[in-house]
Amino acid sequence: MEHEAHNPALLHHFADAQQQKNAASLGMWLFLVTEIMFFGGMFCAYLVYRLAHFNAFAAASQQLSIAMGAFNTAVLIISSVTVVLAVKAAELGKRKVLVGYLAVTVLLGMTFLVVKGFEYREKFERHHVPGPTFKFTDTFDDNGKQIPVNPREAELFFSLYFVMTGMHALHMIIGCGLFSVLAVLAWKGHYSPGYFTPIENAGLYWHLVDIIWIYLFPLLYLISRHS
Amino acid sequence: MAEHEEHTSHSQGFYIAIGIGLLIGTATTVGAAFVNLGPFNPVVALLIATIKATVVVLFFMHVKGASEKLTGAIVVSGFFFLAILLSLSLADYLTRSWR
Question: By C-alpha distance, which of A189, A200, A205 is closest to A36?
């Protein structure tokens, strides 16, 4: 077999670069499927408990800030656009544009986390964090009639809120770390139009984290405003 | 090799247009939350979320036009198993009112 000057990133057990890329993408998707199931379990728990304790969940959900949630949704969508533009820049071999988009993505991810931090602070201030100091005095509004809710049931909502948004935030932190490393490697010229699989796969991960938030936002913040 | 290498990516303007579409979807879902639709508030919110997620999967994650068809099968199977998890669990909890 003649040895032409080939892509140095191409491993020898792959026929060509496209096959190697497809294999990496497939493996990434298998990982993302496990992530979907991981978050799916929490979504399922949320739905079951919301059905069981509807009044308390609605009253607790109405305490969340729609403005901050909507702002964070917009930040994540814009960051998904910068990720996809980073992948595009990598494909075209524009090194500085690629580093720029990766840096903007990390900044947007950190913006999301800072806003989330302010939301969490508000929960601590209002004693909405599950635990011995938890307090909940708000009522469920049933067409103008105020029905008191069981604080234990509202606490369950906030437990699920913290676990779900906390797990999502952990994924955001990991994503910011990933893109920071990739930005440094891209700056050093590790990627070329012939090899940018890590950028693509980190992008897939980031989009999935975005999709999870696209569902978390309406489920936690929006769907219990009227009932 | 180069002739059958597929370029699944779109133009920069296309991605920005998709992003603006997703932002409009977010504004719509926030607006819909303030309108009293009775039992249809969650339905509308989840429908908009599903449309947004589908757009992200197809165009940002390049499942539409992927050269490897197996990727599509993996994605669909992932959501299929999620649907089993949710539908069978809810089929149980939603039918316990006789207790």
Answer: A205
What is d(CA A98, CA A188) in angstroms, rounded to the nearest whole number?
12
| Mean pLDDT split into 10-residue runs, chain A, 227 residues | 63 84 90 96 95 92 94 97 96 95 98 97 95 91 85 95 97 97 96 92 97 96 83
Is A222 in Cβ contact with B53 (below 8 Å)? no
pTM above 0.80, yes or no: yes
The CATH classification number of A17-130+139-222 equals 1.20.120.80
Q: Which domain holds residue B10?
A: 2-66
Residues of B in contact with A43 (CB under 8 A): 86
- Pairwise CB contact (< 8 Å): B22 & A223: no
Cβ distance B30 to A70 under 8 Å?
yes
For the complex shown, is ipTM > 0.90? no
**Number of domains composing chain B:** 2
Are residue B97 and residue B75 in the same domain, yes or no? yes
Answer yes or no: are the C-beta atoms of B83 and A47 closer than 8 Å: no
Per the CB < 8 Å rule, is A30 touching B89?
A: no
Long-range residue pairs from A20-27, CB within 8 A, at least 24 positions apart, any chain? A20/A197, A21/A197, A21/A200, A22/B67, A22/B68, A22/B71, A24/A197, A24/A200, A24/A201, A25/A197, A25/A200, A25/A201, A25/A204, A25/B66, A25/B68, A25/B71, A26/B68, A26/B70, A26/B71, A26/B74
